[in-house]
Amino acid sequence: MTAVKIVFSSTTGNTEGIAEILEEEFQALDADVEVIDADDDVDEDVFEDADVCVVATYTDGDGEIPFNLQEFYEELPDIDLDGKVFGVVGSGDSELYPDAFCQAAIDFEKAFEATGATKGADTVKIENAAEDDDIDTLKAFVAALL
Ligand SMILES: Cc1cc2nc3c(=O)[nH]c(=O)nc-3n(C[C@H](O)[C@H](O)[C@H](O)COP(=O)(O)O)c2cc1C
């Protein structure tokens, strides 16, 4: 069974909802999924026993990584994830932040690229909370990662 770990950061619930959709879709495809809230501290070795590594993050400030993911973000490029697959989902607001839409997700993708992991799917950028239209995109994202 493919082991999947989803690390998410969320303040108002949008990204948490996205993480829940991802969890359901991975389970529907018989993956073994664990969801980790960044509020509970993200250990440097969080992805050690995962085949598929997922980060779901909102963007804070003006294109900034959420406070509770900053330490992990800085550590990530130095973590060896060779042989694993990664994917990133972002939630952001393109109307209020057109020049920094989902910047944290874009930055996480770059950090993952330094780990030796393979990008299994294009980074998904969701406008605030996931709507019905986004479900198909998230389903395709999950299927591509497995
Ligand atoms: C203070 C603040 C700063 C934000 N900065 C950005 C930003 O730079 N880029 C972006 O795309 N969205 C930005 N947003 C929008 C949030 O990322 C977006 O609403 C997201 O869905 C929140 O996710 P959450 O409900 O999981 O906390 C910002 C929101 C707040 C409140």
What brief labels describe this structure?
146 residues, six-stranded parallel β-sheet, binds flavin mononucleotide, globular, single chain, 4 helices, 6 strands, Rossmann fold, alpha/beta
Structure report:
The protein has 146 residues and is α/β, with parallel strands linked by helices. It has one domain (3-145): Flavodoxin domain (Rossmann fold, 3-Layer(aba) Sandwich), CATH 3.40.50.360. Helix content is 32%, strand content 23%. The protein has helices at 14-28, 70-75, 103-113, 132-145; strands at 3-9, 32-37, 52-58, 85-92, 118-119, 124-127. Strands 1, 2, 3, 4, 5 and 6 form a six-stranded parallel beta sheet that branches. Helix 1 (14-28) packs across helix 4. The longest helix has 15 residues, at 14-28. It is globular. It starts with a strand and ends with a helix. The mean pLDDT is 98. It binds flavin mononucleotide (FMN). Flavin mononucleotide binds next to helix 1 and strand 4. GO terms for molecular function: electron transfer activity; FMN binding; oxidoreductase activity, acting on NAD(P)H. It holds the Pfam family Flavodoxin_1. Keywords: Electron transport, Flavoprotein, FMN, Transport. Low-potential electron donor to a number of redox enzymes.
